[in-house]
Amino acid sequence: MSFPLTQNLSRLWASVMIDTLIKKGVTKFYLSPGMRNAPLISAVRAAETKYKLQIIVGFDERAQGMRALGAVKASDQPAALICTSGSALSHYFPAVIEASKTGLPLIILSSDRPMELTLSNANQTIQQDHFYGDYVQYFHNLGAPDLTQTPAQIRSLVGHAVDRSLFPTPGPVHLNCPFREPLDQQSDEKELQDKGLAALRQNFTQQVNDLILKDIPKSVLTPTPAPLTASELDGFFLTPKESLIVVGELTTTQTKKAVLSALRENQSLPFIVDVASGLKYDFVLSEGSVPSFDHPEVYKAYQNSSLKRIIHIGGRTTSKHYYRFLRENPEVEWVVFQDNYRQHDPAFALNQRMVLPHGGLASSIGLILETAKAQGLPLKIDFTGFVAKKSKLIDEAPLAYPSLSKTIIENFSPDTVLWLGNSTVIRSFDSYASETYKLSIATEVQRGASGIEGSLAGAIGFAETCQKPVVAVMGDISLLHDLNSLTSLQNSTLPLTLVIAQNGGGGIFSLLPAGNDETLHRDLFTAHDVNFKKLCQALEIDCEQVTTPSELKTLLQNRQHNKPLVIEALIDDSVNTAIYSELKTIKL
């Protein structure tokens, strides 16, 4: 690209910023409309064809933020969000929180008015400096474009922000970008000439043109982790003990592959694989897999056992009862191995922790589990009959959350990704266990803050980037929180199947103790009578309603992944609650 002298400073400034992001590896840009961010949008569009950028335009900043996060999950590469000034950047906050707690590289470019307009309370201004507080790991206000900074300085500051989104651990960063008018293609040449700055202006433009022709030296950010040695593990396994392995959330592809390989070779110690690890359905009970602690019978079995040590790998688990178990059984040694520096001790039960960042956990997981196997005493509990009885009850029951998750899992197409919403949905999928069904199902979740906002947007962003069919499952309230994203499926060929668990409100509260308080339950349940099929018809999106597991099975088996399909699974909440109660009557 080459920029003529007639370009204004805002356009030149923005062009250096976008060129820097691209040359630092950012190719996904999520744009929201506005006038103050016009220079940045123009710079992105100018580079679109040459650099084969993925540009997504959306009117809802909150959905754009979560959509970008889905793309980051699918690619392990940073994505950029660009918005106008004022309250626009506040709608990115859920995505920033999720990126911060999950460790995802997200780059926010918030356009702004110049400082003098912000301080005078001009239209569409708020204080945007340090807006996200500690949820971002780097912030810089670039200041309004002028001739006192060189293009090289702009490049350095923006380039550093990209580096900080990846190192020392991935996470979100925020660049605030004030722009003065003109924001369109009008020239500011005469104004600068009148101020006696014509020569400086010409020199600045030439520097921009020269700079954009150059490549950026790559930053070596991730040091090669030194292989973990057996002696470094000695302090973690001093004596042989009855042991259980628990695998929590895993966020990188390399760590998932390493843990999968190591567990397949383990075959001696029992292990619980959380659904957020992405590996849960790779194992059956006979291989050592144990159902979730959310099964009261599993909880009680281990509480009454001789369990002395839990080796925890990765991040948090979906099961809150796992952490209750740790609190109530302080004599059980809890040893954690993770790949980031984020605190992981919600039970306040930590005995020892080893942080292995920069791929260190992936490269060392074999040795960790090999050592755990050598120092772990057999502790076998047979859950086969217990699981078979629960499976039989679910198969014979009407459509409810247990049969919804079981039907989807057992009729999943190869090379398809499972995207799970929060609340009852993810707990239902995490509770699944089997002795007969086994398939590698790539599973993705948004469990940073366990919120329900932006669940569909995240699934769409993931599907757009991974280029595989995606089955997204979420509750009706989750979708109501993200209805704007449904419009993104209009006239789309995205191979996305959206399964809505439609029970007329927040059904999870029927399963919690608060659900017994009728007055409280009324307000928590947030009942509604929205018909999603009619909504989809209005948007010309294919939608089918199902009322039985067999109907759902047929749709999944006959699915042609050539365009979006919404499946509205109609669930009677009272029936769902009754089935959960009946499942609890099955004893080990």
Describe the structure.
The chain has 588 residues and is an alpha/beta fold. 40% of the residues lie in helices and 15% in strands. The strands form three sheets. Strands 2-1-3-4-6-5 form a six-stranded parallel β-sheet, with helices on both faces. Strands 7, 8, 9, 10, 11 and 12 form a six-stranded parallel β-sheet that branches. α3 crosses α17 (455-466) and α10 packs parallel to α13 (360-375).
Write the layout of secondary structure elements.
Blueprint: H1 9-23, E1 28-31, H2 38-51, E2 54-57, H3 61-75, E3 79-83, H4 93-102, E4 106-112, H5 115-119, E5 139-141, H6 151-166, E6 172-178, H7 189-194, H8 198-212, H9 230-233, E7 241-247, H10 253-266, E8 271-273, H11 296-303, E9 309-313, H12 320-328, E10 333-338, E11 352-355, H13 360-375, E12 376-377, H14 384-396, H15 401-410, E13 417-420, H16 424-430, E14 442-445, H17 455-466, E15 470-475, H18 476-480, H19 483-486, E16 496-502, H20 518-525, H21 532-538, E17 543-546, H22 549-557, E18 565-570, H23 573-583
Parallel strand pairs: 1-2, 1-3, 3-4, 4-6, 5-6, 7-8, 7-9, 7-12, 9-10, 10-11, 13-14, 13-15, 15-16, 16-18, 17-18
Can you count the helices? 23
- Quickly give the structural class: alpha/beta
Uncertain stretches of 5 or more adjacent residues: 2-6
Relative strand content: 5-15%
Keywords:
588 residues, Rossmann fold, 15% strand, disordered N terminus, six-stranded parallel sheet, alpha/beta, 23 helices
Short summary of the structure?
The chain is an alpha/beta fold and 588 residues long. Helix content is 40%, strand content 15%. The strands form 3 sheets. It has a 6-stranded parallel beta sheet with strand order 2-1-3-4-6-5, sandwiched between helices. Strands 7, 8, 9, 10, 11 and 12 form a 6-stranded parallel beta sheet that branches. The chain has a 6-stranded parallel beta sheet with strand order 14-13-15-16-18-17, with helices on both faces.
